[in-house]
Write a structure and sequence with these properties.
Layout (H helix, E strand, L loop, with lengths): L1 H15 L3 H34 L5 H11 L4 H12 L14 H38 L3 H11 L1 H16 L3 H7 L9 H11 L2 H36 L1
Helix pairs in contact: 1-10, 2-5, 2-6, 2-7, 3-5, 4-5, 4-8, 5-6, 5-7, 5-8, 7-10, 9-10
Subcellular location: Cell membrane
Main location: membrane
Keywords: Membrane, Transmembrane, Transmembrane helix, Transport
Length: about 240
């Protein structure tokens, strides 16, 4: 018990007075996850808007696929990206394997379906509400998508934050494609796994505390935005 107590004490000390290694790991984690979240939003939000306003044969099957992709196993995504980026793979010539870029690609593939599926739900509700108005204005599909994305921006920010929270806590895919290389591809989740296996509990706990702080911060932002949106709806009613 004393060992665990010492480890927690050292972990809090590292959080309050972070070392260069801890700052580097946290910084890379945020850079990779924020980049993946941005790319996922650039892909997922237009796709979600398109699915929300378009009716076509096979739309039900497309929605089933998008919703199913929300549960993609990270290790499977990591394996597929690894095969694509390996020397024998179709994109091996890019030399991206075991780089932060490969980790960004893997996280983007993981969270883009989440952004697309959740944004589709939000925007379809808005579209049903404004459908008659859109028809009366004779808006194009692109104009409707723009209007929905702007009007639903507060809810879509919460979707983006949910995607970021999923990305920053991911370990399986980034371990496979990043390799957990010190000073190059080591992020918080992979570092926690490594340090725990080495018995270096202080650094693992410190990184775990930082990860928890980030997760709580993201959830607090989501809750705050939801409350703000509810307050705006009441004010407009």
């Amino acid at each position: 018990m004393q060992d665990f107590g010492d480890a927690f004490g050292l972990a809090f000390g590292l959080v309050l007075n972070p070392s260069a290694d801890l700052i580097e790991i946290v910084g890379l984690s945020l850079r990779v996850s924020l980049s993946a979240c941005l790319l996922a939003c650039l892909i997922g939000l237009p796709l979600g808007a398109l699915l929300a306003i378009t009716r076509f044969p096979g739309r039900g099957a497309a929605l089933v696929v998008v919703n199913a992709l929300m549960g993609l196993p990270p290790v499977v995504v990591g394996l597929l990206v690894y095969l694509a980026l390996s020397r024998a793979g179709p994109l091996g010539f890019l030399g991206l394997l075991y780089t932060p870029t490969a980790m960004i690609v893997a996280q983007t593939i993981l969270i883009a379906p989440i952004v697309a599926a959740l944004s589709r739900q939000v925007l379809e509700t808005l579209h049903d509400e404004y459908a008659e108005q859109f028809r009366s204005l004779c808006l194009t599909r692109w104009q409707i998508m723009q209007a929905l994305l702007w009007d639903g921006r507060m809810a879509l920010i919460t979707v983006a934050l949910a995607g970021f929270g999923r990305a920053v806590a991911e370990v399986g895919a980034v371990m496979i494609v990043g390799g957990n290389i010190d000073h190059l591809t080591r992020v918080m989740t992979t570092a926690i796994a490594l340090e725990t296996s080495k018995g270096e509990l202080a650094l693992a706990l410190a990184l775990g505390l930082v990860l928890m702080i980030i997760a709580l911060g993201v959830n607090a932002l989501v809750q705050g935005l939801r409350m703000r949106g509810a307050a705006q709806e009441v004010a407009h009613a």
